[in-house]
Amino acid sequence: MAGSTQKTIALTGATGFVGSRMLDLVVRAGYQVRALTRRKQDDRPNVTWVRGALDDAAGLANLCNGADVVVHIAGVVNAPDTAGFEAGNVAGTLAVVEAAKQAGTRRFVHVSSLAATRPELSIYGKTKAKAEKIVATSGLDWTVIRPPAVYGPGDGEMLELFKMAKLGFITLPPDADGRMSVIHVEDLCQALLALLQEREDFTAGIFEVDDGKPDGWTQASFAKAIGWAMGKRITPVGMPKLLLRLGARADRLVRRGNAKLTEDRVNYFCHDDWTIDPNKRLPTQFWQPQIETRKGLKDTAQWYRQNDWL
Question: How far apart are CA 56 and CA 60, in angstroms?
């Protein structure tokens, strides 16, 4: 990539599922990276690990020092209460924006979520929508990207569905015909890579990305695709909202802070349309998805097996 050797990226969330893939990608593309981390990491070429967290102003100042672009991926997907979501998604985003401004960084790429389009449905969505407003009023050269459900090797969020498929069934929201969009983590990171460029097409833009499947997937067809990836013929089982709520309480009792099915997620899951807006797609001359979802799911299942996650 011409000229990218001079450019420095400041990256939050660099040790997470999406962020770790993004880190690999920007290093391969020839960028220098300053990456935020809470704990010591192994040295690697063209990466400067910066100790800190979203609530550590000095760490964030150090992170953004000398950066041309900030890519803010870190956030809270799951929290036991509102305060947890507010701290990670709202206060955290504000702190990164302020650090970028103080450091004189011009470009800011923010990873939001499709949940932000329905803030009334979940605390998660509400806090992601608030974060978008913080970025949009920052005065920086900003772009927001809203991924739908992200999957791929190393993902802990969709693992439960693959585990169920192994048993021959997958539980779904009440409306199995409800629609959803998905994207492979590598495709999402390629979209983020495209957004690092300063272009008028990107400035003050909010983009939604997916696997390119027109109108997305139905909940049932996506469940069956996971079954196919696992080599299993599965039965999709629609669950009443009340039962999902009881399941969320049980999960909280058993796994406490690590619960995957939370009350907040039940409202989110039961919405019948989580497809992207085709009018908000990234222009095709800059990015197009490359990974066909069934193949991506099969690769993900294989990774889970090889790493004993199933």
Answer: 6
